[in-house]
Amino acid sequence: MRILFIYPNLYTQMGFNHGLATLSAVLKRAGHETALVNLNENLPPVPSPGDVLERIASWKPGLIAFSCLTQQYRAACELVKWMRESAAREGVELPPIVVGGIHPTMVPGEVMADGLWDHVGVGECENSLLELATRIERGERPDDVRNFLSWKGGVRPAAADVAPVDALHWVHNPVGEFPDLRTLPMPDYELFDTQRITDQKHGWFGLLSSRGCPYRCTYCLNHKIVDRYRDELGRSTNQIGFFRFRPPHKLIEEIQWVLAHYKNIGTFIFDDDLFTQNVEHAIATCNAYEAAGIKTPFVVNSHVKQLDPRVAEALARAGCRILKLGIESGSPRVRKEVLQRFMSNSDVFNTIEAAEMYGLHTSGFLMVGLPYESHEERWETVDLLAKSGIGRFRTSLFFPFPGTESYALALKGGYIDPSKEVKLTDFTESSCMDFGADENLFIDKLATCMPWFVNSRLDRYREAPASERYRPIAERVLAMPLGEWELFKPTVRKLDAELSAAAVAAGELHYAIKYNAFMGVRSDYYLAEEAGIEWHTAAARPVPERLAELALAAAASEMC
């Protein structure tokens, strides 16, 4: 049977969807055919709804499968509604339509009540989607497949055209076992336009060596999935096998295949929630990477309290370039009471220091606009970054995903603006949170100009001439009323480049907006990169005293 995947990822970060790639690989291994309609503005031409319907009519899939984040779900609904209405007018017979991904997993009942879908997938569906496709192909009743909400009898009723639909019309099947990563096939990279995506992402290429996370952060879906599997399988958390790992040798085989089939790969990104959590797996993977002679540097996610020195050494030896850390807020109270992240500021400082001892560049993830966070606590995030000396930081606006505890907290506190919530497509440039006009404006300024604010406060913690350069512009931004800010905001990137160039010329260590609009990068790192000096070896680690030398080297490199 043919299965057509549709991935509506417009106006979000473009990347490779590991879930779809693995689903496709499992289906192909069983003899099915797969194809993908990837809706992303960075991969033009973007197929129109008419193009999608024409593809369905010509290719004649037996099943259509959507994958959706919360930000993408409304667009998916609009497309499916249009497809059903147009197909009815034009006499095109649509096959069953299934939706899965994060949003359906978190609020499956709400998604089913929309009445648009024939089946709604919950959790990890590699095994269950294969069973569903097989049932449909054989003409068998498909309404009791694990991991799916399905219409009773497998037939979408007429009542579904008038949403919301009462839950009496569908069956909520329990989840099945988590897929065994040791037996899953290599992801189907050919499902995507992988070379084009790699080129668009400037050589950054995503990999996955594990699934799962043992923590229970309120803004994350992982522990909600754990709770669902625990309850529906009737086992303890330790017995359901949520935190799983791929054998290092299979991962190395995949990497070697990828390097043989795609060009211009500059950096691998391990998209594992926590690559460093399991010491044995992390070290074994690094050892296998090094032994295979893979020279492509890589990036991993870590936890502030889980960087074993043995893992740090193995990462540096294997060629790890960046260690990413979820910090989220500079306020210990907010981290503990709102986010359920139990770590101290000292933990943050110590981990950054330890990582850089091994030549690992550090990258922190921060959220601004958190519920129950005071104005003063938002400044604590700025100060933590200024004091830490972290290599880079990435700022995003808090996005409360439906079904998470943080969503419930934000809703209870009256912080969510429903009119904004339905329009959101990303969490870097917009927010559905409402803290009042003045605080909303302040949060927008933080999200846009975080490096400037950090630079302006560096001299609170160390000698930092750059602070005198950035303090006037930071104060000017803070004083701007809404109208002036809206006119000024589009000029931030250009002005940052000018400020940074002047700081570089003066030999001042600072953070500049680099690579994208929400990333602040320490100047010694990007100057080293521009000069062709590898950061991920301790011997080549630049130091602030070498800024002038690095600037000259970078300039020479540009002239060559």
List the helices and strands and how they pair.
Layout: E1 2-8, H1 18-29, E2 33-39, H2 49-59, E3 63-67, H3 70-90, E4 97-100, H4 102-106, H5 108-113, E5 119-121, H6 126-138, E6 148-151, E7 170-172, H7 194-200, E8 204-207, E9 210-211, H8 222-233, E10 244-245, H9 248-261, E11 267-270, H10 279-291, E12 298-302, H11 309-318, E13 320-328, H12 332-337, H13 345-357, E14 361-368, H14 375-388, E15 392-397, H15 405-412, H16 418-421, H17 437-456, H18 466-479, H19 482-488, H20 492-505, E16 511-513, E17 519-522, H21 523-530, H22 547-559
Parallel strand pairs: 1-2, 1-3, 3-4, 4-5, 8-11, 11-12, 12-13, 13-14, 14-15
Antiparallel strand pairs: 5-6, 6-7, 9-10, 15-17, 16-17
Question: If you had to describe this structure to a student in words, what would you say it looks like?
Answer:
The protein is of the alpha/beta class and 560 residues long. The protein has a domain at 2-172: 3-Layer(aba) Sandwich (Rossmann fold), CATH 3.40.50.280. 44% of the residues lie in helices and 14% in strands. It contains 22 helices and 17 strands. It has helices spanning 18-29, 49-59, 70-90, 102-106, 108-113, 126-138, 194-200, 222-233, 248-261, 279-291, 309-318, 332-337, 345-357, 375-388, 405-412, 418-421, 437-456, 466-479, 482-488, 492-505, 523-530, 547-559; strands spanning 2-8, 33-39, 63-67, 97-100, 119-121, 148-151, 170-172, 204-207, 210-211, 244-245, 267-270, 298-302, 320-328, 361-368, 392-397, 511-513, 519-522. The strands form three sheets. An eight-stranded mixed beta sheet has the order 8-11-12-13-14-15-17-16. The radius of gyration is 25 Å and the shape is globular. It starts with a strand and ends with a helix.
